[in-house]
Backbone:
């Protein structure tokens, strides 16, 4: 009789209860992730319904159709009794036009502002067409919303799994659908929600060792939005493992092949004049043309949600600062950056200590830290940790 490995569960029945307990714990965590993700997705759907009701545009609101948009003739034909607002509209109307007949780009091209650019992102409208292959109308709008909701739910599950892998709380799956960027993508029928969610699946599956799932998610992500190729590139550079190379090679090859097809099979059209602009020009244009007029505030929140607070320390002897309003500390002045100031209680130092937000750009390794009297920007420093230590009582 052959000798079995001593770690075999056949010879070690005492390991069976522990394995069963681990299995039950894994199933319990999965149910928690699903529950939180469902709740968050339901709340995001509620926000969409509130947006539709507040806009007064009815079924056209989710695709952000505009009477002056490139897809206006198609939408007027599909919705003869509905009136689109007098504006250009957003990308959702063009995804709608593509989803009506995604496999005949030459027929769809007149309804697109830049056909080759739009067809670089085919997966989102194709999935909507798969749910409603019988042409346009309200059913296709609902199909686009359903794809966005499914993508958000998948992304919430992926974030829950990623949090679980990093020993984080399971309720993070609830927060993902409620992020301003996700809500904006849902209420605009943009491909961003699905693309980001598939990228999250790529990250979570890679960390958990599910390489086949990671490869499939990366491929789907680049076909949803070509710029998501940066996610697997970043993963490979960060992990530096040979087995991760297909994570870049496979989606890279498929994306390259698709782009060649788009260049050969889709009419070029006329690139819009604002296709290539200087960095941050879009934010400035949105600020002047929309946000300051009370429009697209969800989009504004999605840009501003990652501002952080950096604190300066001017107290001596470990005194804890207390809030004293914002007078005397108005740098920087903007609607997204409202300075908060604290007056120190130290007898030795009577200066005012300020906190202000700064954007978490990749190149800003250290926030500006220092005391500020309201007249000039504070000095930069890398002493954030020391600052936090000195603020402790």
Residues:
């Amino acid at each position: 009789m052959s000798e079995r490995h001593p770690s075999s569960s056949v010879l070690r029945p005492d390991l069976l209860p522990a394995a069963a307990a681990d299995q039950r714990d894994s199933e319990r965590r999965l149910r928690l992730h699903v529950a939180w993700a469902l709740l968050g997705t339901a709340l995001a759907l509620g926000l969409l319904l509130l947006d539709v009701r507040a806009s007064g545009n009815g079924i056209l609101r989710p695709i952000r159709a505009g009477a002056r948009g490139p897809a206006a003739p198609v939408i007027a034909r599909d919705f003869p009794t509905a009136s689109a607002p007098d504006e250009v509209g957003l990308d959702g109307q063009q995804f709608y036009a593509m989803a009506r007949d995604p496999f005949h780009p030459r027929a769809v091209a007149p309804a697109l502002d830049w056909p080759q650019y739009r067809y670089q992102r085919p997966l989102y409208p194709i999935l909507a067409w798969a749910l409603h292959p019988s042409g346009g109308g309200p059913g296709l709008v609902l199909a686009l919303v359903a794809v966005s909701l499914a993508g958000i739910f998948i992304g919430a599950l992926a974030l829950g799994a990623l949090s679980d892998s990093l020993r984080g709380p399971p309720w993070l799956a609830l927060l993902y659908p409620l992020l301003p960027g996700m809500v904006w993508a849902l209420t605009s029928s943009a491909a961003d929600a699905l693309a980001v969610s598939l990228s999250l699946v790529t990250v979570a599956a890679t960390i958990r060792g599910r390489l086949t799932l990671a490869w499939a998610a990366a491929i789907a992500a680049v076909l949803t939005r070509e710029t998501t190729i940066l996610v697997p590139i970043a993963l490979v550079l960060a992990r530096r493992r040979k087995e991760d190379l297909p994570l870049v090679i496979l989606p890279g090859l498929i994306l390259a092949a698709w782009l060649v097809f788009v260049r050969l099979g889709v009419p070029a059209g006329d690139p819009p004049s604002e296709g290539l602009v200087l960095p941050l020009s879009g934010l400035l244009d949105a600020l002047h043309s929309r946000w300051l007029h009370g429009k697209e505030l969800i989009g504004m929140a999605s840009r501003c949600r990652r501002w952080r607070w950096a604190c300066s320390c001017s107290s001596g002897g470990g005194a804890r600062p207390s809030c004293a309003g914002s007078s005397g500390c108005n740098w920087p002045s903007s609607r997204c950056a409202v300075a908060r100031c604290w007056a120190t209680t130290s007898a030795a130092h009577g200066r005012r200590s300020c906190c202000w937000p700064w954007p978490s750009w990749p190149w800003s390794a250290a926030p500006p830290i220092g005391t500020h009297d309201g007249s000039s920007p504070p000095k930069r420093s890398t002493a954030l940790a020391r600052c936090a230590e000195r603020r402790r009582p």
Remarks:
- The chain has two domains: 20-267, 307-393.
- The first strand starts at residue 308 and ends at 311.
